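Schema walk-through. Below, the input block comes first and the output block second. Nothing else is stored per chain. Lengths vary across the set, and this one has 420 residues.
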Amino acid sequence: DAVRDRAAELRRLLETPQAVAWKQLIKLDPLGVADVFLDRVGGSRGPLAVDWTSGRYLSRDHRLLLVLGKPVGNPQDIDFNRRLHDGARAEVDAVRAEWGALAEGADAAPPEVFFGGRHMIVFSDSGLIVRDVIVNAATSLLGVLGLFWLAYRRTSLLLLVFTPLACGLAITFGFAALAVGVLASTTAGVAALLVGLGDDFVIVLYGRYLHERQRGVAHEEALRSMGGATARGVMLGAVTTAATFFAFLTTDFTGLWQMGLIIGTGILFCLLAVLVLVPAMIGWSEAHHRKRDREPPLHLFAFGIEHLARFALRWPRTVLGVALAITLAALVALPRLKFDDNVEALRPPGNRGVLALEEIKSHFGTGFDSMSLVLEAPDLDGVLALADRASVVGRELVAAGRLGGVDAVTSILPPVASQR
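--- output ---
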C-alpha cells in the first residue's frame, strides 16, 4: 500500500509544472528513502557530526575543520609516533608551500593546522617527561649542593654529595630502562625525590664524622664511628623508606606502580653508592690534606636550629600548645580538600595533543569522550527495538543537557516496526 501511495504521489508531481526539476531527483530516490534517512541521522547526530553542506566534519561556527585518521601503530610506540608526527607535518608543510596556487590568488592566510589524538598526546608527553626529568634532576642537585656549601662552607665537599647521588641516579635510571622501558608522566619527578632522600644519607654520615673530628678523634677512628652505629641507622632508615614506596607495587595504576618500583630501588642504589663512595672520598680527602701538611676545614652551620631547640627546651608547654593548635586548625580545614578523579590532571601542562582536543571541544561543543551501551537480544529485530528505546532515552538526556549527542545503529537501520 505504501508503495502504491508513493507511486500515486510521484505521478501527481510529474504532472505539475515543476516536473522538469523533480524528474532527476525522483530517479535518484523514487521511494523517498532519503527523507527518512536524513531525518533520523540528522536528529540523532551530536555536535561532532558531518556538516551536510560540505560533507565534512566542520564545526558549527565554520572555523574548525576536523580530519580523522587511524594510525596503524601502537600509541605507546614512541618511534612510530615521531615518524607519524614528522610525516604529517611534512605533508602540511608541502601543502602550505603551494597555498598561493590553492587559494587562486585570494588574499587569505593559510589555515593553522594542529594534531591531536592519543598518539600525539603520548608523543608530546615523551618530550615533556624527558625535559622534566632533566630539569628536576639538575635543579634538585644544584639546590642540594648550594645548601650543602652553606652548611659546611667547603667547596671540595660538594663532590662528596654530587658523586654518590649522580652514581645512584645513573644506576637507577639504567635499572628503569631495563625494568620499565617507558616512564609515565607521574614518574617524571623521581630524580628530585631521590636527590632529596639520598642526600640525607650523606648528611647523616658526614655529620657523624664531622662531630667525631671536632671532638679531637683521629681520622680512622672517626670513620669507624661513622661506619658503625650511624651507618646501621642510615641503612635501617633507607630500607623502611624504600619499603614505603614498594607498597605502591600492589596498585594497578601504572604511574604509581612505576614510581614505587623506581624510587624504592633507587633509594637502595643511592644508599649503596653513599656507603661505598663517601668513606672512600673522605679518606682520599684526608690523605690529600696530609700530603700538604694541613687540616681540612671542619665547619658546620645549622641554620639557627640550635636556637630553636633551646627555645623548645626552655618553653616546652608553649611549644606543645602551639603545635596542638596548628594541628587542630589543619584538621578543621581538612574537609575542604577536594579529590580530582580526572586522570588527565596528572599530565604535565602544555601537552600539544591535549591542547588540540580542548580546541576541538571548544568549537564542536564536545570531544572524543564517549560511553558505549551494549545491548543483547535473541535476534536482530530485538536488538534494533532495544537500540531504538535506548536512543529515545539518550535524546531525552541530550535535551536535558546531560549528554552531548547520541549515535545508534537505528539512525541508519530503524526497527522493523518503524520501517513498515
